[in-house]
Amino acid sequence: MKAVVNSPICPLMSQPRSNCELADEALYGMVVEVLEQTTPGYWKVRTHYRYEGYAPVACLAIGDETAEEWAALPKKVVLHKSFCDVMAAPKVQSWPFITLPLGAVVAVTEAPEAGPETGEPTGWQAVTLVDGSEGYVRASWLDTYYDSPIDLPEKALRQRLVDTAMLYARTQYRWGGKTPLGIDCSGLVSMSYLLNGIVIWRDASIKEGFPLREIPRGSMKPGDLLFFPGHVAMYIGDGRYIHSTGKAGSDGVCFNSLDPTDDLYREDLDKKMTAVGTYF
To answer: What is the chain's Cα-based Rg?
Structure first.
């Protein structure tokens, strides 16, 4: 059985209870597979990127028919704001009935709203939510939803991956997180790829069955991933990388360097790098 996430952020817990380790977060509009229904209040689910955890039932719209209907609708993703209010009417004086994070998915069934007199776009986009209700968001805050890898030349795609990771700059560190409210190291790189239609493993490792392969350290280019024991970063060029770290003094998404002459150099990571992975 399938379900659709109908909460802005659905925590995927490591155990079927709230006071345990957060394994992951599924975002609004994602379709998940229900694996077990044995625990009241929490059901075990698997995401489309093959990660598993226990989701609060209240965060899910459950049923194959619901999931199929949602999957059939044209989508857009929240990309150009950290958070996006869905308004009851196409005006700023309206009231927001849900606020979605970067990476959330909405259905778009109409062109952007046009003014009654000029016919020119007003800047509002009508959207449909998982429960069938309708609302409005700023059209400029949404972008193309990719359910397969974006078709771009290699150099352009590498830059796009880096630019996507940059959207999370200065986000606090949250174990298991992957939104601007808090994100961990693998959450940062996996979301940067996922928002471009590329599914990689959500943990800090190169896993068989996912489109990353190991390359020599000297071959790294922007968009490639740097692996350390229990940690992963994205190389952005000129010896620097972006990553989310819980290290005191950094405490989130920041920039460091592999160049010993750079003020951002971190010797502890440089010396412990275990692999470089590339999609290309």
So the answer is: 20
Q: What value, to the nearest 5°, has the Cα angle with vertex 266 and ends 155 and 270?
A: 65
pTM tops 0.85: yes
Sheet arrangement for strand 134-138: 96-101, 83-87, 134-138, 124-128, 105-107, 75-78, 142-144
Beta bridge partners of 234: 225, 242
pLDDT in tens, 171-206: 999 999 999 999 999 999 999 999 999 999 999 999
Class for domain 2-70, per CATH? mainly beta
| Homologous superfamily, domain 75-144 | SH3 Domains (2.30.30.40)
Give the Cα separation of 179 and 30 in Å (integer).
Answer: 14
Give the whole-number percent of the chain exceeding pLDDT 70: 96
Is 268 in a helix, a strand, or coil? helix
What homologous superfamily is domain 154-278 in, according to CATH? endopeptidase domain like (from Nostoc punctiforme) (3.90.1720.10)
Instruction: Name residue 108's amino acid.
Output: V
pLDDT of residue 109: 77
How far apart CA 177 and CA 48 sit, in angstroms, is 17
Annotated catalytic sites, by residue? 185, 231, 243
Environment class of 188 (CB within 10 Å of its CB; exposed 0-12, middle 13-18, buried 19+)? buried
- Taking only the tens place, the pLDDT of each residue in 249-270 is 998 999 999 999 999 999 999 9
